[in-house]
């Protein structure tokens, strides 16, 4: 549930039966897609950062 954006509160669409379920499913799919896109962006930025760190010879992690 998204608290800051009332239109995305799917509980209020339950009374509309068929169309309400469609709206709830669409909201869920859109939010899932947004979360996946954000995660992919984070993973890409992390991979680029690791590549740059390796080029510079940086080390990370615990002591060996």
UniProtKB/TrEMBL annotation:
Q: Which GO terms describe its molecular function?
A: DNA binding; DNA strand exchange activity
Report the PROSITE patterns cross-referenced here: RECOMBINASES_3 (PS51736)
Domain of life, per lineage = Bacteria
Listed name of the protein: Recombinase
Entry-linked InterPro entries: Resolv_N
What organism does the record attribute this protein to? Paenibacillus vortex V453
Name all Resolvase/invertase-type recombinase catalytic domain ranges: 1-57
């Amino acid at each position: 549930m998204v608290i800051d954006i009332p239109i995305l509160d799917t509980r209020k669409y339950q009374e509309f039966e068929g169309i309400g379920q469609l709206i709830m499913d669409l909201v869920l799919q859109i939010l899932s897609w947004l979360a996946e896109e954000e995660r992919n962006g984070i993973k890409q930025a992390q991979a680029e950062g690791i590549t740059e760190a390796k080029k510079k010879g940086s080390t990370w992690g615990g002591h060996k």
